[in-house]
Each structure stands twice: as C-alpha cells, then as structure tokens.
Amino acid sequence: xxxxxxxxxxxxxxxxxxxxxxxxxxxxxxxxxxxxxxxxxxxxxxxxxxxxxxxxxxxxxxxxxxxxxxxxxxxxxxxxxxxxxxxxxxxxxxxxxxxxxxxxxxxxxxxxxxxxxxxxxxxxxxxxxxxxxxxxxxxxxxxxxxxxxxxxxxxxxxxxxxxxxxxxxxxxxxxxxxxxxxxxxxxxxxxxxxxxxxxxxxxxxxxxxxxxxxxxxxxxxxxxxxxxxxxxxxxxxxxxxxxxxxxxxxxxxxxxxxxxxxxxxxxxxxxxxxxxx
Length: 277
Ligand SMILES: NC(=O)C1=CN([C@@H]2O[C@H](COP(=O)(O)OP(=O)(O)OC[C@H]3O[C@@H](n4cnc5c(N)ncnc54)[C@H](OP(=O)(O)O)[C@@H]3O)[C@@H](O)[C@H]2O)C=CC1
Ligand SMILES: O=C(O)[C@@H]1CCC=N1
Hints:
Blueprint: E1 6-9, H1 13-25, E2 32-35, H2 39-49, E3 52-54, H3 57-61, E4 66-69, H4 76-90, E5 93-96, H5 103-110, E6 116-120, E7 132-136, H6 142-153, E8 158-160, H7 167-175, H8 177-194, H9 199-219, H10 224-231, H11 237-247, H12 250-273
Parallel strand pairs: 1-2, 1-4, 2-3, 4-5, 5-6, 7-8
Antiparallel strand pairs: 6-7
The chain binds NADPH dihydro-nicotinamide-adenine-dinucleotide phosphate and (2S)-3,4-dihydro-2H-pyrrole-2-carboxylic acid.
Domain Pyrroline-5-carboxylate reductase dimerisation: 164-268
Main location: cytoplasm
Binding site for NADP(+): 9-14, 70-73
C-alpha cells in the first residue's frame, strides 16, 4: 500500500500520541502535515517528530489525501465548515477521532457526502500500545477501509464496529479508559505513602504492578476474575482489600462512571446540533 499524505487537523494530546505511534512504526515524517494554532505545540511537534506544521487547517489539508480530525468536539462544526470547499474538490478520506461527533454530523458540516471513518484511539498509541474502535460510513471504499485500518494499527490493535451508536461505548471504555487506570495509580500511590512508603518507592511499586497485571490480562488465557483469584489467598491480605472494595460498591461505581462517559459522548453530539447551521 503506498504511503498517502496525512493531515492532522489539531495537534494536541491525542494527535501527538498518534503521530508518535506512526513515527515509531517507521512512517516518513515528511508525509505528515499538522495544523495547530498554538505556536508552542506546533514547534514541539516539529522538533520532536520532524513533521510539517501549519498554523491553519486549510494549509495542512491541501497537502493530504487523508484528513485526521483531532480537534475538540466543540470546534468540529467550525473546522468542517472552514474546510468544506477544499473537501468538495479534494474528496479526502476523513478520519475523525472526536468523541460523540457522528458521521452524519460531519457530512452535514462539510456539506457533501465524503468517505468518513470514526476512530476512537487512546493515548497509549504513543507507545504503540493503544487500541482503536472504528466505524466506516457507506462512502468508504474497501481500499479506504484498509487505509484507515493501517493508519490506526500503528497505534495498536483495531476493532471495527457495524453499529455507529456503539462508538460512545468504546469511548467510555477504552478512549477514556487510560485515565481510570491513572486515577487508580494516583490513589494507590497516596495510600502506599500513607502506609509509610516513600514517594519513589510507592511510584515504582504501583507502575510495575499495573504494568505486570495488564500484561497478564493480555497474555494469559485466564479471565480477569481467574487471575484475581490467583492473587487472593483465603483469609489473606488481598481478600481483606477486595472485601473492602466490594463493600464500598466498587463495581457499581465503575459501571456508573462508564455509563456517565457514554452519556457525555451523546451530549457532546447533541450540543453541537443545537448550534446554528
Ligand atoms: N485525549 C484523549 O485521550 C483522546 C481524545 N480524543 C478526541 O481527540 C480530540 C482531541 O482531543 P485532545 O487531543 O485531548 O484535545 P487537545 O485540546 O489537546 O487538542 C486539540 C487541539 O486542536 C487545536 N485546534 C483548535 N481549533 C483548531 C483548528 N481550527 N485547526 C487546527 N487545530 C485546532 C487546539 O488548539 P487550542 O488549544 O489553541 O484551541 C488543540 O491544540 C477530541 O475530539 C477528543 O474527543 C479521542 C480519543 C482519546
Ligand atoms: O475526555 C474526552 O472527552 C476524550 C475522549 C476520550 C478520551 N478523551
């Protein structure tokens, strides 16, 4: 498959993670253009990855066959409308990573039916340890499907969905998911220090424990429940901790949190529909 030029519209946190994954995979940085209004972020991307950087979306988009929309959902209507003329002549493959924003909304804001892939990656993409959920609209050809898949596979495995509505659930589980683990890490760190460990000791113990447990989840044939049971000696220390988590409603809390994230995705979509078109 030839390397098609790629434009990132938005050079923030997630774009940086994806660009890092693509460069680590061996993609030529000269094939990547990034539009980012903040001069500091632009310069950091140029310095760290040697990609082309531009101040305006138009300047980056006109170079590329694939547009990766990596701006916040709230600015997406304006970005699409600004790019509408170029989109209708260039007819790029559009890949949007914005939470909540639907392919129908993007089509409406661009004002023309374009091949659109919605992608929901996560920040471990930077280390090529991410995971991406994807959905393609009816305009996407087989070849473009493969192009989008190859692009996001630089970030880690991909999972394609038939039902676009499930993208909000993917966002709630894996898009936002790294933050849940970081929150757990923060809480374990504070608890370890409260029990007398130094900050440095707690930090290395927490990070390596989460890393090792994640590797076991990924590499073992056993379920999370089975792996948990292997740690939990009857009447032992783990049992004391797990009983405390269960008594505090840990599972219900996680369910409510993921539900809140999914609902927020739908709200982000609805909020943009309230704007004048
Ligand atoms: N962060 C994450 O873990 C994930 C994020 N996403 C999605 O990715 C998208 C970006 O999120 P994230 O990277 O966290 O957000 P950031 O705010 O870090 O990045 C967005 C960037 O886009 C810039 N921007 C704003 N307007 C324009 C424009 N017209 N042209 C070009 N760039 C523009 C912003 O600049 P300025 O700040 O000056 O406005 C900002 O630097 C969101 O839609 C989010 O839902 C998806 C998966 C995971
Ligand atoms: O918090 C957000 O809205 C974005 C989407 C998934 C991760 N970050």
